[in-house]
C-alpha cells in the first residue's frame, strides 16, 4: 500500500471524474490524501500540476502529476499492481474496454450535460432523458458479454467499464429523483439497472460518492440561477 504522502488527489466532491479516480484508488486499496479544490479560486498547486487544462482531477504520485480521469485510472492500474486488475489482460478485451469508455465519455455523457441547458418544460426534458436511456442500450449488450453471467463488467469485481460508467450513477439517481422519471429503465435495460444497484453498494464505491442530497441541492441552485438569469434578460 502506498503511503498517503506519496499519493495525492486534487478534486471536488461532485465531479464524477474525480469520483471515478477515487473508486479506482479504493479498489486498489491505495492510501491517499484528498485535497479539496475550490474551482472558483483554483489553487497554485492545481494550476502548477495541470497547466494545460487547469481542471480536476489530478493525481500526484511521488511528486509527478497525472491528469485526465481515464488516463489516471489506467495509470493506477499499472502503478499499483496489487489488488484486482482494472483493465483486462487480453489485448483485444483491453482495447474493447477502452472503446466503450470513450463511447461513454464522448457520446453518452454530452447528452447528460444537455439537461443543464435544455428548456425547463416537460417535453424538452423528457426528450433528453429518453435519449440518455437509448444511449445506454448498447451498454446493456456489452455488459451481458463482458460479465459472463457475473455481477460486473469486470466479472466478479469492478473493471474499467464499471468505473467509467459507474461514476455517473449518483448524478443519474439524483436526476431521476429530481425530475421524477427513470433513466435506468428496467423495461429497456434490465441488466444495467440491476448492475447499478450492485455497483452503488460496492465497498470501493461507498466512500467515493457524495450523498444524493448534495446533487439535488446543486440542481436546485442551478435552476434558481437559470431562472434568475432568464428573468433579468426579460426585464432588459
Keywords summarizing the entry:
236 residues, alpha+beta, Glutaredoxin, Glutathione S-transferase Yfyf (Class Pi), Chain A, domain 2, 2 domains, four-stranded mixed β-sheet, 4 strands, 58% helix, detoxification, glutathione transferase activity, Glutathione_S-Trfase
Largest sheet: 4 strands, mixed
Give the name of the CATH architecture of the largest domain. Up-down Bundle
Order of helices and strands: EHEHEEHHHHHHHH
Strand order of the largest sheet: 2-1-3-4
Distinct helical segment count: 10
Descriptive notes:
This protein is an alpha+beta fold and 236 residues long. The protein has two domains: 7-79, Glutaredoxin, CATH 3.40.30; 91-212, Glutathione S-transferase Yfyf (Class Pi), Chain A, domain 2 (Up-down Bundle), CATH 1.20.1050. Helix content is 58%, strand content 7%. It contains ten helices and four strands; from the N terminus they run E-H-E-H-E-E-H-H-H-H-H-H-H-H. The chain has helices at residues 16-27, 44-49, 69-79, 91-113, 122-147, 160-166, 169-179, 190-201, 203-206, 212-235; strands spanning 7-11, 33-36, 58-61, 64-67. A four-stranded mixed β-sheet has the order 2-1-3-4, with helices on one face.
Short description:
The chain is built from ten helices and four strands. With 236 residues, the protein is of the alpha+beta class.
Amino acid at each position: 500500500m502506498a503511503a498517503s504522502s506519496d499519493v495525492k488527489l486534487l478534486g471536488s466532491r461532485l465531479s464524477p471524474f474525480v469520483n471515478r479516480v477515487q473508486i479506482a484508488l479504493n479498489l486498489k486499496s491505495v492510501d491517499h490524501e484528498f485535497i479539496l479544490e475550490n474551482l472558483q479560486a483554483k489553487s497554485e498547486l492545481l494550476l502548477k500540476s495541470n497547466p494545460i487544462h487547469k481542471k480536476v482531477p489530478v493525481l500526484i504520485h511521488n511528486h509527478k502529476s497525472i491528469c485526465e480521469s481515464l488516463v489516471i485510472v489506467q495509470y493506477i492500474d499499472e502503478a499499483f499492481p496489487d489488488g484486482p486488475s482494472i483493465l483486462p489482460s487480453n489485448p483485444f478485451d483491453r482495447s474493447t474496454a477502452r472503446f466503450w469508455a470513450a463511447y461513454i465519455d464522448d457520446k453518452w455523457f454530452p447528452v447528460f450535460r444537455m439537461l443543464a441547458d435544455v428548456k425547463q418544460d416537460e417535453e424538452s426534458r423528457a426528450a433528453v432523458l429518453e435519449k440518455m436511456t437509448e444511449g445506454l442500450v448498447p451498454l446493456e449488450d456489452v455488459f451481458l458479454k463482458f460479465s459472463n453471467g457475473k455481477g460486473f463488467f469486470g466479472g466478479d469485481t469492478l473493471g474499467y467499464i464499471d468505473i467509467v460508467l459507474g461514476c455517473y450513477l449518483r448524478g443519474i439517481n439524483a436526476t431521476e429523483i429530481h425530475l421524477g422519471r427513470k433513466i435506468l429503465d428496467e423495461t429497456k435495460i434490465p441488466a444495467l439497472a440491476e448492475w447499478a444497484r450492485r455497483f452503488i453498494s460496492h465497498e470501493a464505491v461507498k466512500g467515493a460518492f457524495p450523498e444524493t442530497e448534495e446533487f439535488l441541492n446543486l440542481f436546485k441552485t442551478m435552476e434558481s440561477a437559470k431562472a434568475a438569469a432568464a428573468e433579468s434578460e426579460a426585464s432588459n
